[in-house]
Design goal:
- By secondary structure, the chain is an alpha/beta fold.
- Helix 2 runs parallel beside helix 5 and helix 3 packs parallel to helix 4.
- It is globular and about 35 Å long.
Length: 142
């Protein structure tokens, strides 16, 4: 099995950005944790992060041609604005799980909208880094 872990804007700033919301662990800590978990499962995993919407769309489209079996996506702020990410996920029809580190449902009103959730097989919110592990497990056990 092959998974793509896709992270959107500002997730590269984990550990620096609002540690009271996102914690003090870094993006590299997140990658290491997921990588170790995937290794124990025998899952091939690739990590991509971008602050640019078009790059994220390109990564989703490339996943189709790379025969990726599942996508774990934290679109960051693009969750609430990007029809382009929704359309890309619809186009490739690769099972996707949406993950949010924070409890977006308890934050600002504008964060209540998620375009990605309209195509995601599951949405996991407010479980910190563990949400990614839950997403990987969901995709590998499905």
């Amino acid at each position: 099995m092959k998974l793509l872990i896709l992270n959107g804007p500002n997730l590269n700033m984990l550990g620096i950005r609002e540690p009271d919301i996102y914690g003090k662990s870094t993006y590299n800590d997140l990658i290491e944790m997921i990588g170790n978990h995937c290794k124990t499962l025998g899952v091939d995993v690739e990590f991509k992060q971008s602050n640019h919407e078009g790059d994220l769309v390109d990564y989703i489209q490339a996943a189709y041609f790379d025969k990726v079996d599942g996508i774990v996506i934290n679109p960051g702020a693009y969750t609430h604005t990007s029809v382009a990410l929704l359309d890309a996920l619809k186009a490739v029809q690769i099972p996707a799980v949406e993950v949010h580190i924070s409890k977006v449902d308890e934050r600002e009103d504008f964060r209540q909208i998620s375009y990605v959730s309209k195509i995601a097989k599951k949405t996991i919110i407010g479980k910190g880094f563990d949400g990614y592990i839950e997403a990987v497990d969901f995709l590998t056990q499905g």
